[in-house]
Design a protein that fits this description.
This protein has helices at about 60, 170-180, 230-235, 255-270, 295-310, 325-345, 380-390, 395-410, 410-420, 445-450, 465-495, 500-510, and strands at about 5-15, 45-50, 65, 85-90, 95-100, 105-110, 115-120, 150-155, 160-165, 195-205, 205-210, 240-245, 285-290, 310-315, 365-370, 375-380, 425-430, 435. The chain is of the alpha/beta class. The chain is elongated, with a radius of gyration of 43 Å. The relative contact order is 0.08. A hairpin with a 5-residue loop joins strand 17 and strand 18 (about 435).
Length: about 525
């Protein structure tokens, strides 16, 4: 059963804001004494806190779904709802937080560092807060907005002064147990450490931490074995100590070839920008297990060649503690030098994210989508989308308040610029946004607000015709009627049709001749 986890995905859901309250104060002899609806409480945030007492992400691996409490709705008599409690999630120092898309959100390298990973929803205003000199008794309140939700990935990178690098079963766990109070798992059969172990070593007046991390094999930089799980924890160590097994029985292995494999894998591992490459950091070599006669002979044989490469070599035995004192003092000296050099460097510039002012102009976009046949206009922006969430669409007064806010923000001007006209379909938000049939807001200059910027609807209006125009139109109508009468007379003369008077006249003529029409 795993007891150490260094990479998890958290599914977060911050609390929703509470709805505002619609209430009217009632007193004796004052049945309508004014609005007194309270505001809704804010939803609880979800905050990650770097805690030195936490060493693993196991708790979040077992229960990755975390949510904070919702804000309570407002009440009458100016009583605001209770805000949801902030949910604090302690994580180990050295945890790197990534967003769902892979972007770096925070690197928690300092104890006590706090990062808000999911912000709670905003509580809605009650009708008392919405009252103005022009709207003295609002009959609506704003709804609370939804809290942020989504996934974040936590990756733990061990922070230590010295990293023990070596093959599996090289004696790294035994070494950290011998020089510190750490108690890692040690056995008399071949196996590799599955979880990093941290130990505190005191060497004279210097105290430093040593990390015993999973064993390294050839191809680890490409993901073989524990691969990146190991190299991730070496990334933040100032000093590397190569632990070489001089008593191995594996064919084809010797201290020189083992060191070459380790160096090759460390060289291939890309460190983050701004950090020193692994091979450019101080490195020492510990030839372990010299309590075995053959191992001591082999260590004495390869020491000159390793020293010729520029390494400081220490022959040690974790079983008899031979050479450990000299090794610990050497490590302490290098760590002290690294700390002094780091202290003399200028402090890293802190990145401060400043949100835009509340009354900043803009903050939204308007785009035409859907092609020519099914064109609609999509409005995106934090303010318009939040205002839509806060609106109770069963209340006409609340809808009017939303229209006023959008018009004041400049959304209608943006729609005009994008080519929208009265009756166009407008969507505020993403795929699940609110759909409207847009009707421009009418003001005292309504004939101008319903036209695009740079145009005047009055130019295209049907103005009153002049006297000459009316005279010409009258003559044209008279001429058209005369032409129609002449055409009808021509058709009658040609016998194409006869009116009732012509039929009666022909009947009288037949009777005078004495003929019988019945014949």
């Amino acid at each position: 059963m795993a007891t150490f986890v260094d990479d998890v995905i958290l599914h977060l859901s911050a609390g929703n804001g509470g709805n505002g309250c619609v209430s009217v104060r009632r007193e004796k002899f004052k049945p309508l004494a004014g609005p007194d609806g309270g505001n809704g409480g804010d939803g609880g945030d979800i905050v990650l806190v770097a805690d030195p007492q936490v060493t693993t992400l196991l708790g979040y691996h077992r229960s990755p779904h975390r949510s904070s409490k919702n804000g309570q709705p407002g009440m009458g008599d100016m009583r605001s709802g209770v805000s949801g409690e902030v949910l604090e999630l302690p994580v180990p120092v050295g945890t790197v937080v990534y967003e769902d898309n892979g972007d770096l959100l925070a690197d928690m390298t300092e104890p006590g560092m706090r990062v808000v990973v999911a912000q709670g929803g905003q509580g809605g205003l009650g009708n008392a807060a919405l009252a103005t000199t022009k709207r003295k008794a609002p009959g609506f309140a704003l709804l609370g907005t939804e809290g942020e939700g989504g996934d974040v990935r936590l990756e733990l990178k061990t922070i230590a002064d010295v990293a023990l690098v070596g093959y599996p079963s090289a004696g790294k766990s035994s070494l950290i147990a011998a020089i510190s109070a750490a108690k890692p798992k040690i056995a008399d059969y071949p196996f590799t450490t599955l979880t990093p172990n941290l130990g505190v070593v005191e060497s004279g007046e210097v105290r430093f931490t040593v990390a015993d991390v999973p064993g390294l094999i050839e191809g680890a930089s490409e993901g073989k074995g524990l691969g990146l799980e190991f190299l991730r924890h070496v990334e933040r160590c100032e000093v590397l100590l190569h632990v070489i097994d001089c008593a191995t029985l594996d064919p084809g292995r010797d201290p020189i070839s083992d060191l070459d494999v380790l160096l090759r894998e460390l060289e291939r591992y890309p460190v983050p920008e701004g950090q020193v490459p692994l091979l450019e950091r101080p490195q020492l070599i510990a030839l372990n297990k010299i309590d075995v006669p053959d191992a001591a002979e082999l260590a004495a044989f390869v020491t000159p060649e390793l020293e010729a490469r520029g390494y400081r070599v220490f022959a040690i035995s974790t079983a008899s503690h031979q050479g450990l004192r000299e090794l610990s003092f050497a490590l302490g000296g290098i760590v002290e030098q690294a700390r002094a050099a780091k202290a003399s460097e200028p402090a890293a510039e802190r990145i401060i994210i400043r949100p835009k002012a509340v009354d900043a102009k803009g903050g939204f976009t308007v785009k035409a989508e859907g092609g020519e046949e099914h064109r609609f206009y999509r409005v995106r922006g934090s303010k318009p989308e939040r205002w839509v969430q806060q609106t109770d669409f069963e209340n006409e007064e609340a809808i009017g308040y939303l229209a006023d806010r959008l018009a004041k923000l400049g959304v209608e001007d943006g729609l005009f610029k994008a080519g929208a006209v009265a009756g166009s379909t407008v969507v505020i938000g993403g795929d699940g946004g609110m759909i409207f049939d847009w009707e421009p807001t009418l003001t005292s200059t309504a004939e101008l607000i319903t036209s695009a910027r740079g145009t005047d609807a009055r130019v295209d209006m049907n103005m009153r015709p002049t006297r000459n125009q009316r005279r010409e139109e009258y003559f044209e109508r008279m001429d058209a009627k005369a032409a129609a009468r002449a055409e009808l007379e021509q058709e009658r003369v040609s016998g194409l049709w006869a009116d009732d008077g012509d039929s009666a006249a022909s009947g009288s003529a037949a009777g005078d001749d004495g003929s019988d029409s019945r014949d």
